[in-house]
Amino acid sequence: MTSTAKVPRYSPATLERAERAVRCAPFQLKLFTTMRRQSVDIRAIAGSAGVENGYSQQPLPEMAVEQLMLWLIQVGLLRREVDGQGLTSSFRLTPLGHLLVEQWQQEGKLPAANWRDRLYNSLSRWLRLPDWLQPL
């Protein structure tokens, strides 16, 4: 982002939810810093490629990576890349993601999750109301 770009304002709840989701995800800062510059294909994140690329500390099944990426989309951190054919298997940061990753790059690491973060993230992720039941 350039200094002349208008930075959206986010509620404290939105920021906390996105930060908590990343703290609880098994990804390394390098994945998100790469996403600041370019989209990243799921095949570069899943399996042994994820470890080799420095995106995760252990190999993760592609299905698990897909589900984690969808959660990070729901909390507003990521978006799925689109090409002329439609949605792709690549992901990029949203403006919220750029804001948070810039902060983490300055700190040099992702914040660590505690047991409360993990509990609250799990409850938020798995006990969500369907979109059609969400209040407007």
- Major beta-sheet overview: 3 strands, antiparallel
**What is the residue-averaged pLDDT?**
88
Distance between the termini: 30 Å
Q: What order do the helices and strands follow?
A: HHEHHEEHH
* Cα Rg: 15 Å
Q: Which sequence of strands runs across the widest sheet?
A: 1-3-2
User: Which structural category do the helix and sheet elements fall into?
Assistant: mainly alpha
Shape label: globular
Walkthrough of the structure:
With 136 residues, the protein is mostly helical. It is 49% helix and 12% strand. It contains 6 helices and 3 strands; from the N terminus they run ααβααββαα. The chain has a 3-stranded antiparallel beta sheet with strand order 1-3-2. Helix 1 packs across helix 6 and helix 2 crosses helix 5. The longest helix has 13 residues. It is globular and about 35 Å long.
Please sum up the structure shown:
The chain is mainly alpha-helical and 136 residues long. Helices cover 49% and strands 12% of the residues. Helix 1 packs across helix 6 (115-126) and helix 2 (29-37) packs across helix 5.
